[in-house]
Amino acid sequence: DAGAYFVGSRWGRHKLVPSVSPGKSWEGVVAELFWTFLTGFLIRALHKWGGLVCVQYPPYLTVSGLFGVAVLFTIAGVCGDLCESFLKRLGGHKDSGDFFPGHGGVLDRFDGFLYNAIIVASILHVKALAS
Fold first, then answer.
1. Cα dihedral across residues 114, 32, 35, 76: positive or negative
2. Among 61, 105, 114, 124, which is most buried by a count of CB atoms within 10 Å?
3. What confidence score (pLDDT) does residue 44 get?
C-alpha cells in the first residue's frame, strides 16, 4: 500500500474508480504490483540463499509463478482498498478513524492485508485438503 500511495499521489493521473476512491490511480496499482513482486522476489532470494529460514517458501514457485501470485495479491489489495472506501462513502465518512490523521484511519492500513489474508488462508486450506 505504501508504494502504491506514494507513486499514485505523486504521479497518478489516470483515476481508477473516482466515484468510490478519488485518490486511487492506475499508476498506483502498477506500483503496488511492482512492490508486491519485488518483495516476493526478495523473500524468495533470501530463502534460497539460506538467509531467511523463518518463512516456508514453496520450492516449486518459479519467478513467473511468483508474478502470478503478485498479480493475485495486488488485485486483492486493491479490492480491499476499494471496498473499504466504498463502505466509508456509504457511511458518509471521509476517514474510518482519526488515529492516523490524514491517512484515512486504522482500517485503511489493513484493508488490503485483510483481503490478502483470505487468499492466503484459502490457498493453505486447499493445500491441506490436497495432501
1. positive
2. 105
3. 83
